[in-house]
Specification:
The protein is α+β, with helices and mostly antiparallel strands. The protein has 4 helices and 19 strands. The N and C termini lie close together (about 10 Å).
Length: about 280
């Protein structure tokens, strides 16, 4: 029912650097662009000019094992990148950024730059695994690389925000009990626990509606098509192609929804979610 409470926010996440792990928040500011600080930076391949994305894991998979967060020193905010050995490097100074770029280039085996200003025509590449039935926009992809143009001036793949319900994750666990549908595989900004009794891919029914959360209003634009990243090893989670297979077998490849900001504002864990 439109205007009714459909759930509550149980966790918030932002990802300061594209394709790296992010940070869990208790509260966040939603700007016209999206969650403040989300995808504020990205790596760029100096040779091709393309934005680095773990969606091409054979080339850039190592970046997925890193994490990024914001730190503040002497009133200036910078992005801090944590490597798998526990080392941290930040972008606070030009020298620090240079050390970070050198370490990242050595890790990835290619010369990369750390960018915080997206160009108008940025692109990245996706790898579609060799898996039967991966269909997008009426075309079947198998073991192919495709190029994707990012929204002008951003490091987002498409929309500025991604919302996911706990009901969808629970439903997938019931359908495919042998796989771990950990929320970290899906990289949402907002995780919403739906009202009692709601089951299945609940957020599918929110498309074309507007979510009112705290002081923000989010327009739900489309389901969130999943890609190879949900299958990649992450921390203690193993590589698992069945995670992507399940999304295509049971929900046309979608898990969660994409949103655009209809009205900026602040949100926090525990906020009610109304569907308008």
């Amino acid at each position: 029912m439109r205007g009714a409470v459909v759930g509550r926010v149980v966790s918030l996440y932002r990802y300061p650097v594209k394709s790296m792990g992010g940070e869990r928040l208790e509260a966040a500011r939603i700007t016209a662009r999206g969650m403040e600080g989300d995808r504020a930076g990205a790596l760029v391949d100096r040779e091709t000019g393309r934005v680095v994305s773990a969606k091409r894991p054979r080339l850039w998979g190592a970046v997925y094992g890193l994490s990024a967060s914001f730190e503040r020193e002497s009133g200036a905010a910078s992005i801090c990148v944590r490597f798998e050995d526990g080392t941290t490097l930040s972008t606070l100074s030009s020298a620090g950024r240079g050390r970070l770029e050198a370490r990242l280039s050595a890790l990835l085996g290619r010369d990369v730059a750390f960018a915080t200003e997206a160009v108008e025509t940025a692109t990245c590449e996706y790898h579609w695994p060799d898996m039967e039935g991966l269909v997008q926009d009426g075309r079947t992809y198998r073991d192919e690389i495709t190029e994707w143009e990012l929204p002008p001036g951003t490091f987002f793949d498409s929309s500025g925000l991604h919302a996911l319900t706990t009901a969808s994750l629970d439903h997938l666990r019931e359908l495919v009990p042998g796989s771990d549908f950990d929320v970290g595989r899906f990289r949402p900004n907002l995780v919403i626990e739906p009202v009692a009794g709601a089951r299945g891919f609940v957020e599918n029914d929110w498309v074309s509606g507007t979510l009112e959360i705290g002081g923000a209003r989010l327009r739900v634009t489309k389901p969130c098509m999943r890609c190879v990243m949900v299958t990649l090893p992450l921390g203690d989670l193993p590589k698992d192609p069945q995670v992507l297979r399940a999304a295509f077998d049971h929900n046309e490849g979608n898990v969660g929804v994409k949103c655009e900001v209809a009205g900026p504002g602040s949100v926090q864990v525990g906020d009610e979610v109304r569907l308008g």
